[in-house]
Amino acid sequence: MDRDNIEHGKPTRKLLPILTMAVFAVVVLMVTLSCGSGQPQTQRTADGQEPVQTSPTSTPSQVPQATTTQESLPLSRTESLLQAQQTTAVQQPVQESESTGRESTEGVRVEVLHFHGTHQCDSCKTVGALAEKTVNTYFKGELDSGQLAFAHINGQLAENRELVMRYGATGSSLWIGIYIDGTFHKEENTTVWYKIKNEQDYLQYLKGVLEKRLAGDLS
Q1: CA 114 to CA 175: how far, in whole Å?
Q2: 193 φ, ψ to 5°?
Q3: Is residue 70 part of a domain?
Q4: Which is it for strands 183-188 and 173-180: parallel, antiparallel or unpaired?
Q5: Residue 25 falls within a domain, yes or no?
Q6: Is residue 30 part of a domain?
Q7: CATH number of the domain enclosing 100
Q8: What is the DSSP letter of 147?
């Protein structure tokens, strides 16, 4: 009996390791499958490289659109003064100036600007002073109506940068700006520099130039 039991138990002992390994393999297989099912499979392109993955919930960043509306720059103190002088410009087609009898043209405004630096030489001061004397002597009516404006502009001050850029003024110079029917014309008058030693010659010359500009004559 004991021998039979021993011989019958041999196959059982031989199968035990095999069963253990089979159970272990099944457990490993189940663990592998459970881990693999939680990760997305990476698909490769035709050239064997992995495509760049993007999060399904991510959206392209919004790029703000540039606006084309330009904000008006604040007027400098000098520009505000010139604008205030010109708001009462003549509106009638033809009007005679009471002080001079000259005719002024509708839609024409003129500004005379003496650009200078902080430190001026004697000639620079004379050019500006005689220009101011010309408009005050011969164009009082146009000054009062706003059709003509005059100003000394320190080109080195930040508040006058807009005017300097508009006229393209460099250094001490005398500029005349003419507004005709919504268009702007500018000119630098260099002839006045040759007339500063003769006051009457200077005044009469600039008077003639301004009369033509106020009449809309740009020649």
Answers
A1: 6
A2: -65, -25
A3: no
A4: antiparallel
A5: no
A6: no
A7: 3.40.30.10
A8: S
Q: What are phi and psi of 23, to 5 degrees?
A: -60, -40
Task: Print the domain residue range for 121.
Answer: 77-214
Q: Which residues contact 184 (CB under 8 A, 6 or more apart)?
A: 177, 178
**Inter-residue contact 105 to 94 (CB < 8 Å):** yes
Report residue 41 as tokens.
Answer: 């499979």
Rounded CA separation 103/160 (Å): 32
Instruction: Answer yes or no: is 60 within a domain.
Output: no
φ and ψ at residue 131, rounded to 5 degrees:
-65, -40
The angle at the Cα of 52, spanning 46 to 54, to the nearest 5 degrees, equals 135
pTM strictly above 0.85: no
- Rounded CA separation 75/71 (Å): 12
Residue 37: CB atoms within 10 A of its CB come to 8
By DSSP bridging, strand 148-154 and strand 108-116 are parallel
- Write out the two tokens for 20: 């253990």
Per-residue pLDDT of the chain (219 residues; tens, 9 = 90+): 445 544 555 555 666 777 777 777 776 677 666 655 444 444 444 445 544 444 444 443 443 333 333 333 344 555 555 655 444 433 333 333 333 445 556 689 999 999 999 999 999 999 999 999 999 999 999 999 999 999 999 999 999 999 999 999 999 999 999 999 889 999 999 999 999 999 999 999 999 999 999 999 998
Number of domains present in the structure of the chain: 1
Backbone angles phi, psi at 21, to 5 degrees: -65, -35
Contact 78, 160 (CB under 8 A): yes
